[in-house]
Design goal:
Radius of gyration: 26 Å
Number of strands: 3
CATH topology of the largest domain: Alpha-lytic protease prodomain-like
Length: 303
């Protein structure tokens, strides 16, 4: 994460120098995007550290969800940058850009774009390998910055070659639309994580393991299946049914087998299974005033 912070500061400095040399509205907007990236990177660095803090009485499931807040913050920062670029581009189109020293500024902006591309791909690669949403989000933010810089280089390059100054803000507008799409995807992922949206593939693996246990006779049935994920940590809750007369010790042994089968379905994750043991005739065994929450997968599971 330190490499990302240092890289962001170097890139920002390069863009500000390029803007000072050229007076390009597109390069200035690009530098503005880098300012938001520096802020977002700082927050991402904090959240990456905070997410590794162990569970405590106030946060029994740990602190991993800070990753989704970081992704949301980065998405919001990118969104603000895109709107700023659109505003600057519209203003430049209306007033007409005053450009100078395009050759030197173009070379500097191109070097910044290459640096961003290398840094962004590295962060995404490390984030995917480690399952870190923070690093993946930060890497995508850097890649977005790279595409912004590439668009600016293209715009300034065309202006330099053709003398058509209006191309500068036009290219900036197109790049801003691409940034808006990236911001939307980051915000969507952050909201899905905070709302604990279930991933269909995770649900399928869990239900398949439980159905196999039922078909093999290890359990008589199951219901009230739930799961929640924070990056590489997965929690699974379920109710397992056993014959009414089965000793608790035997039911517990079989439950351990089922838990091991569930853990085996997610070899790259830290899996924590909490199973509630019930007799097959659990409806009759419950007190008359017993109430259970809505079974989220009750209608989804095919028997």
């Amino acid at each position: 994460m330190g490499a990302s912070v240092v890289g962001a500061l170097v890139v920002l400095g390069g863009k500000l120098v390029a803007w000072g040399l050229t007076g390009s509205a597109a390069i200035l907007a690009d530098a503005g995007e880098s300012v938001t990236h520096v802020i977002a990177t700082g927050f991402a660095a904090f959240s990456l550290w905070y997410a590794t803090e162990p569970p405590d009485p106030g946060h029994p499931y740990g602190h991993g969800k800070i990753a989704y807040l970081a992704a949301g913050a980065q998405g919001a920062a990118i969104l603000v940058a895109a709107l700023g670029i659109l505003y600057s581009a519209a203003r430049a189109l209306l007033e007409g850009p005053a450009l100078r020293e395009l050759g030197v500024g173009l070379a500097l902006a191109a070097g910044v774009a290459v640096l961003n591309g290398v840094l962004g791909r590295y962060l995404v690669h490390v984030g995917r390998r480690t399952g870190s949403l923070v690093l993946v989000s930060n890497g995508r933010d850097v890649m977005t910055d790279m595409w912004t810089s590439a668009g600016v280089v293209a715009g300034v390059g065309l202006v330099w070659l053709t003398g058509a100054a209006w191309l500068d803000p036009l290219v900036a507008t197109l790049v801003a639309l691409n940034i808006l799409w990236t911001a939307y995807r980051l915000l969507q992922r952050a909201v899905a994580g905070l709302m604990e949206k279930a991933h269909p593939e995770t649900t399928r693996r869990i239900v398949d393991a439980l159905q196999r246990a039922e078909n093999d006779g290890r359990i008589d049935g199951f219901h009230q299946v739930r799961h929640r994920r924070v990056e590489r940590t997965l929690w699974i809750d379920c109710h397992l049914l056993f014959p009414d007369a089965m000793p608790v010790a035997e039911a517990h042994r079989r439950t351990n087998d089922v838990e091991a089968a569930l853990e085996a379905r997610f070899p790259d994750d830290a899996v924590y299974v909490t199973a509630h043991l019930e007799p097959a005739a659990h409806e009759r065994a419950h007190p008359s005033d017993h109430r259970e929450p809505t079974d989220p997968l009750g209608e989804w599971i095919e028997r």
